[in-house]
Amino acid sequence: MGVRLRAASVRGPAHTETGVPNQDAVLIRQGRWGWLAAVSDGMGSRPRADIGARTLCKAALDSVRELHFDCTDRAWVETLECNWLARLGVLRIAAKDAVATCLLAWGLPDSRFRLAQLGDGLILGHPAPARGLFSRDGGSFGNLTRGLGLSWRLEDWRFDSGQLLAPGDALVLMTDGIADDLGSTDGLVSMLARELRNRGARSARAALTRDLTDWPTAHHSDDKTVAIIYRI
Amino acid sequence: MPIKDFAVKAARPLPVIILADTSGSMGVDGKIEALNQALRDMVKSFGAESRLRGEIHLGVITFGGKAAAHLPLTPAHQIQEIQEFVAGGGTPMGAAMEIARELVEDRELIPSRAYRPVLVLVSDGHPTDDWEGPFQALLASERAAKATRIALAIGNDADEAMLTEFANDLEAPLFHADNAAEIVRFFRAVTMSVAARSQSGGDTQPLKLDYRRVADDEDDPLADFFN
């Protein structure tokens, strides 16, 4: 019994054709302290968005190593912001030039987890959150989002918590390059957990990369990144 | 790994909605003919654009005598021809605003995965109906407030105060056209800008209408509109 983490990220056709680096980033880590999956999408209009996203994932890891799992949501976000700004400061990059979304799943070895999200993208869970932690409401559009470096209010974040109790229980974090092109997501999370159950990390990454590269949506352009956490 | 089995095949739409004044005053000085030519050119350009990162959907609302959906929101490449405008009647702009608001707020026609819509208001006169309420409702509506709104004032009799309030794109304040040729050039500039946005794929920057370039730059179709 335990928890496994898998992830993949591919550069979108728009960035491949123009030679722009992948502006999504993903980090998965697991240790005796627990586990973390961090997914971030750098805002394409900002000049250092790719670094913003990568730095955010590293700052997320810094934060969970500093904090107690039972800390408040505010402490979690404030610590993350401080660590992100500190890392950007070393690189002499202004936060406004590195705006990035943030999707986090932080868990303990006993598979209790906490979720946090700022901006676009989707966190889905089986059995929960089945409808997504924070999907775009009907009043918005595909090219409007929030992100760290742009939003500094706790109210802009969404949080949740739970536990992966049974084999097959899972969480999926994805950037809007995937989420915006999905139709119904019914069965998606449990399908991924089932498909990945017998794959090693390298095999899982290769399979996911193939899937995200061979994407069926017409004229799709965006970078695509996914992280999956599942109970075995 | 069938994650892609959950993806839709349809491209993300980029809605462009034209609110066109077709009142009687547009029937002089070749204005309505210019508007017809401009729309034909726009449809042709959008339909031929192959480098898109989405799918441009064009809709046209006219207000001349009465307000009506002249062209329902349609993928540009599927538009075979667009019915020519005929100038006549008053300027029921308020009613056109109401149609535009309902269209932008329709989650079925414009899903949340769509790119931010572009609303283009073109007028040579003052509204003749009870327009203040619909106008404020449009500006305040959740989705129209997030849309890019551009306005073109034709001639000297346009309600510039209202058109200025309509426009919300910092890169594109109120534009002016003093003759038929400038109407065509304005639409060409909008076409180029929308195409550029659709090629960028999810760009969050304002619509680029590069009016700040020097006025004698022939490459800049909007240079003559800069006040």
Automatic annotation (TrEMBL), chain A:
Residues covered by the PPM-type phosphatase domain: 11-210
Q: Name one Pfam family in it.
A: PP2C_2
Q: Which InterPro entries match?
A: PPM-type-like_dom_sf (IPR036457), PPM-type_phosphatase-like_dom (IPR001932)
Name the UniProt record assigns to this protein? Protein phosphatase 2C domain-containing protein
Automatic annotation (TrEMBL), chain B:
- Residues in domain VWFA? 15-190
* InterPro entries associated with the record: VWF_A (IPR002035), vWFA_dom_sf (IPR036465)
Q: What SUPFAM superfamilies does the annotation carry?
A: vWA-like
> What Pfam families does the record point to?
VWA
Matching SMART domains, A to Z?
VWA
Which PROSITE patterns does this entry report, sorted A to Z?
VWFA
User: What is the recorded name of this protein?
Assistant: VWA domain-containing protein
